[in-house]
Design a protein that fits this description.
alpha/beta; Rossmann fold; seven-stranded parallel beta sheet; three-stranded mixed beta sheet; 42% helix; globular; binds nicotinamide-adenine-dinucleotide; binds uridine-diphosphate-N-acetylglucosamine
Length: 336
């Protein structure tokens, strides 16, 4: 058993990872400033896990707070989720993104070093591969950025790699997520996007609940099976398990790794709409509109390195993803 600090642990992926880590027998401490999390997440995590939740409310850039957390808790490793994540917004507010995502990581690493804690799992993204025709994407594909958000992830990865290369006591797990979707099987936690989501699955969910009238499909003239964009959607509970495996590998081997977390299989936009329609029990309305600027036709993971290095394999299907999302959002509507 280890004691793990989760920065951003009240957010979408962090809260699901919290539950998997507790199930796997770890003690977990959350640090989150709740700028993008609901206040009742800790209470919900307590209901699901049956254990009290330890939360520090504050900013990951606050070195004094970090020093206090490391002094009060015997932390063995860190999973670092806390970040800003909207690609479009990062173009409008690059300094906020660099300050939170790069500044936050550097402050955290300095506090870890001072506390003699040198194991970290880092939330990265398939966005570090840029726009590429090589599909599925292997981890040794060159990194390139097309947005300030992507820049922050490449910079974070590079900082971690440099430090690990210089000091073998550091063990770093870089996890490049593809498209995380779905919700916890309890339907008590899930993704809580703003009023008009940018991403496909939360948008479809709001059409399914009646909050938005219809889905806009961004282009049907791509070179794919039905002309719509293909993505590698991964269930957030599978993704959460990837963090447990990454952390365990760091603890057991002391070796760093950088791996894709995806299924290796893509789905088109129309396939996702069909699967969600089946999950919610009615045909969801959509229009075909122009392509969204900056979108690529296909984005899928080569999954074998994650399997070989940390034993990760995504198990849940697109239907599982849609059903769990629908259970979560329909439950929210019923309780509001
Ligand atoms: P999220 O916004 O739900 O979670 C992030 C959490 O961090 C939130 O609870 C927020 O309140 C907290 N936070 C933000 N800034 C903070 C700060 N300065 N100090 C302390 N806490 C802070 O996002 P998520 O979808 O769970 O993403 C988690 C991580 O995964 C992020 O690093 C994100 O960039 C990365 N990621 C997400 C996706 C995705 O599609 N969701 C894809 C690839 C990578
Ligand atoms: C986006 C992010 C990426 C992040 C990923 C995971 C951008 C440019 N990229 O990628 O960094 O890692 O989310 O969440 O924002 N679509 C529609 N209609 C919609 C919304 C989307 O047809 O209303 C289509 C898109 O054209 C795409 C697919 O659905 O083909 C998925 O889109 P989206 O969910 O936004 O994810 P990505 O663009 O892959």
């Amino acid at each position: 058993m280890s004691r793990i600090l989760l920065t951003g642990g009240a957010g979408y992926i962090g809260s699901h990872t919290y539950l998997r880590l507790v199930e796997a027998g770890h003690q977990v401490v959350i640090l989150d400033n709740f700028m993008n999390a609901r206040d009742d997440v800790p209470e919900r995590l307590e209901r699901i896990s049956g254990h009290p939740v330890t939360v520090y409310r504050g900013d990951v850039r606050d070195r004094v707070l970090l020093d206090r957390v490391f002094a009060e808790q015997a932390i063995d490793g860190v999973v670092h989720f806390a970040a800003l994540k909207a690609v479009g917004e990062s173009v409008q507010k690059p300094l906020d993104y660099i300050h939170t995502n790069v500044g936050g990581l550097l402050t955290l690493m300095a506090a870890m070093e001072a506390a003699d804690v040198r194991r970290i799992v880092f939330s990265s993204s398939a966005t570090v591969y840029g726009d590429t025709d090589i599909q599925p994407i292997p981890e040794d594909h060159p990194r390139t950025y097309a947005s300030p958000y992507a820049y922050t992830k490449i910079t974070g990865e590079t900082a971690l790699e440099q430090v690990a290369a210089a000091d073998s006591r550091w063990a770093v797990g870089i996890l490049r997520y593809f498209n995380p979707v779905g919700a916890h099987r309890s339907a008590l936690i899930g993704e809580d996007p703003g009023d008009i989501p940018n991403n496909l699955m939360p948008y479809i969910a709001k059409v399914a609940t009646g909050e938005l009238p219809k889905i806009s499909v961004f282009g049907d003239d791509y070179d794919t099976s039905d002309g719509t964009g293909v993505r590698d959607y991964i269930h957030v509970e599978d993704l959460a398990q990837g963090h447990v495996l990454s952390l365990n590998a760091l603890i057991e081997t002391g070796q760093s790794h950088a791996v894709n977390l995806g299924t290796g299989t893509g789905s088109t936009v129309l396939e996702v709409i069909r699967a969600y329609s089946a999950a919610c029990g009615r045909d969801l309305p959509y229009d075909i509109v122009d392509r969204r600027p900056g979108d690529v036709a296909v984005l899928t993971a080569r999954p074998d390195k994650a399997r070989d290095l940390i034993g990760f394999e995504a198990r849940r299907t697109l239907d599982d993803m849609c059903r769990s999302s629908w259970a979560w959002v329909s439950g929210q509507i019923a309780n509001s």
